[in-house]
Fold:
Amino acid sequence: MTDTCLFCRIVAGEIPSTKVREDDLVLAIRDIAPQAPTHVLLMPRRHVASLADLTEDDAVLLGRIFAVAADVAREEGIEADGYRIVANHGRAAGQSVDHLHFHLLGGRGLAWPPG
Ligand code: AMP
Structure:
C-alpha cells in the first residue's frame, strides 16, 4: 500500500467506494464520474502504478481481473450488446490515478476510435 495513493486508500477502506466485487487479488468499484451507464473500475489490491509496470509475474492477477470483468459485465446485463475494457497509461492517454485500473464501460454505444 502507498499512503498517498487514492486507490490504495480505497482498497484499504479508508475512502468510501461503491464496491461491485472484491476478492483476494482484485477490487471492482463504480467510477465516481461514470462515462457510461455501466462504468466499473477493476484494480489490483496491490499497488501497481500502471500498465508499464506489469511483468509476466502478473499473469495470474491479469487473468483474474479479466475474468472478474467478464462476470461483472454479465451481471450488469451488457454482455449481449457489447462493452469495452480500457486502461490508460500516462498523461497523454489520460491516466489520472497512478494505480493500475481497467475501465469497464457499457450500456451505450461507444465510438471508435476513442478520442
Ligand atoms: P484514469 O483517468 O484512467 O486514471 O481513471 C481514473 C478514474 O478514477 C476516473 O474515471 C475517475 O472518475 C475515477 N475516480 C477518481 N476518484 C474516484 C473515487 N474516489 N472513486 C471512484 N472512482 C474515482
Q: What stands out?
A: Residues 6-106 form a domain with the HIT family, subunit A fold (CATH 3.30.428.10). DSSP finds two helices and five strands in the chain.
